[in-house]
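[Meeting: bench + compute handoff]

Bench side (C.D.) handed over the final construct sequence. Compute side (W.E.) agreed to return the predicted structure before the next meeting so the bench team could plan truncations. Sequence as handed over:
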Amino acid sequence: MSINKNISQSKKDKKNILKEIFQDSAEVDYSTFINFALYNKNYGFYSNKKRMMLADFITSPLTHKSFGIMVAKQIIQMWDYYKNPKHFSIIELGGSTGKLKDDIVSYIKKYNRKFYRCLIYLNIDEANNDSLLNVDFNSKYGCIISNEFFDALPFDRFQKKGGDLKEIFIKKGKENNLKEVLKDTDKTNILEKKFIRKIPEKSRIEITNNLKIICRKLSTFLDHCIMLTIDYGFEDLDYLLINNPNGLVRCFEGHNMDKDVLINIGNKDITCDVNFFFLDQYLESAGFKKLGFCLQEKFLQNMGIANYFNSTKNPIEKQQIVSLMNPDGLGGFKVYFHELGTENFEPQGLN
């Protein structure tokens, strides 16, 4: 069964990237397609070294260094919680150019030299040719920091058709035109059949690829750790029951947003709302316990960002800090805490 939708693209690299995407088959699932579009070493969005920072979207670490400072203060509390071990590992997921790492380490070095001498920092990012599932690392104490990591993972897409969820595949034609094809699937087994029946006809949903495997891998890095996850998304599965023919996909190019993954391939970011219900479930199955969550605005307030705001006289910096707190923007992101190994940590960011 196919969807009558052909998508054209005139970019000069289209032929080359499509050749790599479809080298083994004329049909691929969405997660395969997205993985190539984002991380292909020659044509992927994050591999494009000519792309200027801030050219397509803005993140909290790039908005103002106070974000990294507040995260660093929270990490110091974690180190104190574990009674100041001689080795403490920070594992950052999807740290890209290392801006958040630089801000965290700079603050710790300046204000807590003892902790700084104990610090081990890993920045794991697919764009830097790091494959998370292939990382071999283990330490006793530490934390995992995830800022806008899960929303950038490749995902599969599904559409309600005839009472069932069908998986959407992408098929390449002879003229490099792309067509979506619906097929039966077993990838939706995580959803109960009675829930699938409630999803509106023709509505689309997304499910992150390999999320369960990723959570299990994270549990192997540290024996005792706090995981801090900052991202946008939803906690209630009923959010998927809203009639949504375009799903929850967002593409960003030049600070403009669209929902068409199949146009301008390799030249724009592709993200999807994080399903925190699934993430919690898989983290719990891997041994993590959820401690709670709040909005980024509240987290930054709890960590004392008002003091930083009041200490600076620069109006541009003040506006950047306000942007971090905007509940309709970055301030509306969810901040989750999970703990592995023990269950007594009380994060200052949640108080």
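W.E. noted at the follow-up: The CA atoms of residues 30 and 156 lie 5 Å apart. C.D. will use this when planning the next construct.
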